[in-house]
């Protein structure tokens, strides 16, 4: 039976493009027809996940469910959401849809734990305030990693940078702010890795000096998990 991947995107659009790009580039094919059939529902009008968690805005849950049901209707076999914060509602979502939904945070945590083995890596989590406060990564990496999160001032820098990426405004000044933040944690807290716990953050990786740090990319991990679930092989790296 042919497997069709559904992508609920728009959270934000650049991250959705990044997911699709990484999926295409990491699928092993001999010809064009070997690529995965993908249906993308790119809906930037889904309300803010961060405001939904804090209660400062409309809940995105009904919009997410509606978006996944639309993907079901047009033939998706399973769905991914290239947005970490949206997984705050994961259990409620999966209770109300009829297709499996891959969990970006669970997939990322599994890969980190497998790579770490018996060691306890020290990790800097760069994510939205909603993801950080909800403890989405801490829950999945409990006792398997030491997770450090930015202080209140630093978190404002991270959130502002994420919003600027969503608006297409990110520039060298933004990269420097994040670079300085990473350097601070590298020098003062001896971090082993960073988690780009918002799908906008990995878009910055090519512009940062990450020497000596393992930059974890949940978007890439989700793309690879989707490829394997579609029964395809990963391209050799």
TrEMBL record:
The keyword Isomerase applies. InterPro entries: Asp/Glu/hydantoin_racemase, Asp/Glu_race, Asp/Glu_racemase_AS_1, Asp/Glu_racemase_AS_2, Asp_race. Its EC number is 5.1.1.-. It is an enzyme of class 5 (isomerase). It comes from the Bacteria. Keywords: Isomerase. Pfam families: Asp_Glu_race. The keyword Metal-binding does not apply. GO terms for molecular function: amino-acid racemase activity. NCBIfam families: asp_race. Belongs to the aspartate/glutamate racemases family. This is Amino acid racemase.
């Amino acid at each position: 039976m042919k497997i069709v991947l559904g992508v609920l995107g728009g959270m934000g659009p650049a991250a959705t493009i990044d997911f699709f790009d990484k999926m295409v580039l990491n699928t092993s094919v001999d010809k064009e027809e070997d690529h995965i059939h993908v249906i993308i529902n790119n809906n930037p009008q889904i309300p803010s996940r961060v405001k939904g968690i804090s209660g400062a805005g409309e809940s995105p849950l009904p919009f997410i469910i509606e978006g996944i049901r639309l993907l079901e209707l047009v033939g998706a076999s399973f769905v991914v959401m290239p947005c970490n914060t949206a997984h705050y509602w994961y259990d409620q979502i999966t209770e109300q849809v009829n297709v499996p939904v891959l969990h970006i945070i669970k997939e990322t945590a599994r890969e980190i734990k497998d790579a770490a083995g018996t060691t306890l890596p020290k990790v800097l989590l760069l994510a939205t305030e909603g993801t950080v406060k909800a403890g989405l990564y801490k829950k999945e990496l409990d006792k398997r990693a030491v997770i450090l999160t930015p202080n209140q001032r630093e978190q404002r820098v991270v959130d502002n940078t994420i919003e600027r990426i969503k608006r297409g405004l990110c520039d060298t000044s933004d990269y420097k702010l994040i670079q300085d933040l990473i350097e601070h944690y590298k020098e003062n807290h001896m971090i082993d890795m960073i988690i780009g716990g918002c799908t906008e953050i990995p878009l910055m990786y090519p512009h940062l000096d990450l020497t000596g740090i393992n930059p974890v990319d949940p978007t890439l991990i989700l793309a690879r998990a989707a490829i394997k679930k579609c029964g395809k092989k990963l391209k050799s790296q």
